[in-house]
Design brief:
Radius of gyration: 24 Å
Bound molecules: flavin-adenine dinucleotide, NADPH dihydro-nicotinamide-adenine-dinucleotide phosphate, 3-(1H-indol-3-yl)-2-oxopropanoic acid
Strand content: 15-25%
Strand order of the largest sheet: 1-2-8-7-6
Protein name: Flavin-containing monooxygenase
Distance between the termini: 27 Å
Structural class: alpha/beta
Number of helices: 11
Organism: Lactuca saligna (Willowleaf lettuce)
InterPro entries: Auxin_biosynth/cation_transpt, FAD/NAD-bd_sf, Flavin_mOase-like
Enzyme class: oxidoreductase
Family: Belongs to the FMO family.
Shape: globular
Length: 409
Amino acid sequence: MGFSQTTDDMELTRVYVPGPLIVGAGPSGLAIAACLRKRGVPFVILEKENCLASLWRLKSYDSLKLHLPKNFCQLPHFPFPNNFPKYPSKEQFIAYLDSYAKHFSIRPMFGYEVKSAEYKTTSDGFGLWRVVANRTEFVSRWVVVATGDNAAPVVPEFDGLEVFGGKVMHSSEYKNGGEFRGRNVLVVGCGNSGMEISLNLCHNGARVSLVVRDKLHILPRDILGRSCFAIAVGLLKLFPLRFVDWFLIVYSRMTLGDTSRVGIVRPKDGPLKLKGKTGKTPVLDVGSLSKIKSGQIKVVGEIQRFTSRHVEFIDGKVEEFDSVILATGYTSNVASWLKGESFSGQEQGNKTKNSWISNMKGRNGIYSIGFTGQGLFGASNDAERVAEDIGRQLSSYRKHLSSKINPYM
Ligand SMILES: Cc1cc2nc3c(=O)[nH]c(=O)nc-3n(C[C@H](O)[C@H](O)[C@H](O)COP(=O)(O)OP(=O)(O)OC[C@H]3O[C@@H](n4cnc5c(N)ncnc54)[C@H](O)[C@@H]3O)c2cc1C
Ligand SMILES: NC(=O)C1=CN([C@@H]2O[C@H](COP(=O)(O)OP(=O)(O)OC[C@H]3O[C@@H](n4cnc5c(N)ncnc54)[C@H](OP(=O)(O)O)[C@@H]3O)[C@@H](O)[C@H]2O)C=CC1
Ligand SMILES: O=C(O)C(=O)Cc1c[nH]c2ccccc12
């Protein structure tokens, strides 16, 4: 890092960063840091929490396992240990991320929550990024946004929720079902979180109802012993997406049955087409569907309103619940801190779409990692490409500087 000084007007300590400034120390921030380290590019990482990968460490439930096979989830230049299972647990994944950071000597600045980032140009036309976190202004040529598409919980407004007397929590606060034994629990939302939390509640002896308000795709996590995701990726190399979607639906129908019988209707678009169009990830079933079929998880429709102990549904049914878990998804927080014309994204289906951010590279040296909608696999690819781009710029800049100092170079 460069020298620091205290600016007069805002009482901010100013720090000059001689390379990119990375915002967020989750898998994406670590991946880009490692790729930059490999190229000898200096960087600074700011992380708002006091640990690496806060989503995984602080905001996910105990039973969580990766649902894509490990070869799709490892970060660049450092594979998972051989003894890891095909679908590593959350603890294993966190341990891997810790050893990843250690291996590449990545030491984020913890407790630095970025409150604003803005590209400012001086009167002579020279522009730099100014990023404010923890009463410090970081000045840099490049900013890498690695705060993720799951930075903030989505908590929809429901009529009467404020008078509901039972416990209400977001899925990011759920750890395990211990406290819900024998209770009536309503899980709202049937993405992968809602499905897996419902299953875990079931395993813990809760009576579970699951709100399914729209159509969705459920796929088996594995097909004939191989991961459904790996098979889809393999088939996409040989066949058009339309065919792969057809195969996934036909196979799912054969193995999982007709899910519309239990209130889960498939959308018209196939799972991969829908993922590309809206960012909505299909549910990869790890056992919830059989609990739904056996009636241990009861599918219910959209909520009309809450009363002190009951929930009224749009179809007129009324049921009593002790607790509500809102598995209603997440959203990015980038729009709240990235200023000026730098962020012109629109939120679509809770995911960042239609903005430079879903394309990795913006104007004036801003980049993003982990917003291309391809999970950890996508984040690793983004990291390689962004590091290459920044590395190239830095070496031509260095060449330019040294030719100024030594004109014979
Ligand atoms: C329950 C759950 C399970 C998942 N399982 C899988 C899976 O199996 N496979 C898969 O590919 N994907 C999975 N995902 C998607 C997952 O989000 C990504 O794969 C991965 O965590 C993305 O990493 P990231 O670094 O981009 O974002 P995150 O992991 O969210 O990390 C972002 C970091 O940025 C920090 N941060 C945020 N805002 C600021 C700020 N303003 N200033 C400073 N720091 C900030 C956060 O504290 C956090 O540490 C899962 C998501 C969830 C919620
Ligand atoms: N094992 C794993 O690897 C896991 C991976 N994940 C991943 O994490 C990411 C986040 O997943 P998740 O937390 O499930 O979030 P999602 O955004 O995927 O799902 C949110 C769900 O909440 C529903 N919802 C939102 N608002 C309401 C409302 N007002 N009333 C009723 N339902 C509502 C949505 O329905 P609608 O579609 O109608 O808007 C959707 O079904 C995903 O990428 C997912 O794949 C999550 C858990 C486990
Ligand atoms: O776990 C997630 O949410 C992911 O984004 C991983 C992922 C990307 N593309 C997919 C297609 C089908 C299933 C999971 C994913």
